[in-house]
Design goal:
459 residues, alpha/beta, Aldehyde Dehydrogenase, Chain A, domain 1, Aldehyde Dehydrogenase, Chain A, domain 2, 2 domains, 6-stranded mixed sheet, 16 helices, 18 strands, 17% strand
Length: 459
């Protein structure tokens, strides 16, 4: 944390909001343009920070963080003026003549608490929504990604208006101190345990929250699926960022025969991406910290290692690994894996898989490789933040799809226009002229004529 204390930061940003600094459309667009320039001009510095924190290659940083942000900024900037126009609402007969509409107004001062697994993307993507909404914002980067946090602290004030945007670095104590302040909206990405702490803190001020959490994201593979394509896509979604992705496949559900055919194809896909020695492949990410590494290694013992299984603590790397023969009660099935370990779990058939998913916590994302005729059953009989048929993770690249969880996997959503809505209040506006004064029909005394008119309007 810098010299300025959280209380002082929030007070300063609240005064900027009170003065209307961030309200004009021109200001909002200028800030979005500043973010676009940051991502373009500082790509080498940002990539280097991601490399230092997570071992990400420049290519993976571009594909999974910087490039996504560039497309999102362009998408929002090009549509913001249209999205901010008042939306007309129909006026019922008793209220006519009159005009009704809704307008999006800034909520005020936002707190954005970012995680470590995509420390650039998940700090700046919510900020795009806050700036588009005309809010002031505090960005709290993760202390587990210190290089990226430092880069944001140093670079962001050069490209956006520091009177309305602040980066506050620090550990969990700093986050706690921030949560003691009054904000107008809190956006948190991370785990459920801290999510509950955030929600409890927000409740003290009745502050709205968006919680982007996680959980165990299952993948079902049906015998009818193209298993080569399924294996390639599952391995891609699972092993990018060394499995440290909230919507990554957490485990695979398949019958015995399908699993026996799928596992060798998963190994082939992993080798194609990361070679025969992933522990020494610069394109393969590392685990973020020793603590997380030490949590993951024991999970390798929770099944039979079909391939992979090696771990190197000095480099904090764990090979892409598939486990078979995994018991439901094992640790790897009782927690979100959040690492490059993929259990393959036996089900008897598709019906068994649907029942299993429907009976568990609602996942952030569900992926299904099955025949088209099964889509309705999966969509209507299971609940999840998203459902994707034929590919995991890629729904994040569709800007007009909402991204968010349900139940244990989160509340609220963002991306595209929903990012603007997440940081705005949708205000109702009614305009009714003085003449004719139809309100008289709704007020006492009620004679025969008024009752006849009311009966017509109310049915």
């Amino acid at each position: 944390m810098g010299a300025e204390e959280p209380e002082s930061v929030v007070r300063r940003l609240r005064e900027a909001h009170r003065r209307g600094l961030a309200r004009p459309l021109e200001w909002r667009l200028a800030q979005l343009d500043g973010l676009a320039q940051l991502l373009l001009e500082q790509r080498p510095a940002l990539s280097a920070a991601l490399r230092q924190d997570l071992g990400k290659s420049a290519d993976e940083s571009l594909v999974t963080e910087i490039g996504l942000l560039q497309r999102e900024v362009a998408h929002v900037s090009g549509r913001l003026a249209r999205w901010l126009r008042p939306q007309r609402a129909a006026v019922p007969l008793p209220v006519q003549p009159g005009r009704a509409s809704t307008v999006l107004e800034p909520l005020g001062v936002a707190l954005i608490i970012a995680p470590w697994n995509y420390p650039l993307l998940l700090a700046l993507s919510p900020l795009i929504g806050a700036l588009a909404a005309g809010d002031a914002a505090v960005v709290k980067p993760s202390e587990l990604a210190p290089a990226t946090a430092g880069a944001l602290s140093e670079l962001l004030p050069r490209y956006v208006d520091a009177r309305a945007v602040a980066v506050v670095e620090g550990d969990a104590a700093t986050t706690t101190e921030l949560l003691e302040q009054r904000f107008d909206v809190i956006f948190y990405t991370g785990g459920g345990r801290v999510g509950r702490i955030v929600m409890a803190a927000a409740a003290r001020h009745l502050t709205p929250v968006v919680l982007e959490l996680g959980g165990k994201c299952p993948v079902y593979v049906d015998p009818s699926a193209d298993l080569e394509v399924a294996a390639d896509r599952i391995a891609w979604g699972k092993f990018m960022n060394a499995g440290q992705t909230c919507v990554a496949p957490d485990h695979v559900l398949a019958d015995d025969a399908t699993a026996a055919r799928l596992v060798p194809l998963l190994e082939r896909a992993a080798r194609r991406m990361y070679g025969g020695d992933p522990l020494r492949n610069d394109a393969y990410c590392r685990i973020v910290s020793e603590q997380h590494f030490d949590r993951l290694v024991p999970l390798l013992e929770d099944g039979e290692v079909a391939f992979g299984g090696r771990a190197d603590r000095p480099s904090l790397r764990i090979e892409p690994t598939v486990l078979t023969g995994v018991a439901d009660g094992s640790a790897v099935m009782q927690q979100e894996v959040f690492g490059p370990i993929l259990p393959v779990v036996r089900v008897t058939d598709e019906e068994d898989a649907i029942e299993r998913v429907a009976g568990g916590d609602k996942p952030l994302s569900l992926t299904v490789f099955s025949k088209p005729s099964s889509r309705a059953a999966w969509t209507t009989r299971t609940s999840s933040g998203s459902i994707a048929f034929g590919v995991p993770v890629l729904h994040l690249a569709v800007p007009d799809l909402p991204f968010g969880g349900v139940g244990e996997s989160g509340t609220g959503s963002y991306h595209g226009r929903r990012s603007l809505v997440a940081f705005s209040h949708e205000k109702a506006v009614l305009v009714k002229p003085s003449r004719p004064d139809t309100v008289q029909l709704l007020s006492p005394p009620f004679g025969r004529v008024k009752r006849r008119v009311l009966a017509r309007f109310t049915g």
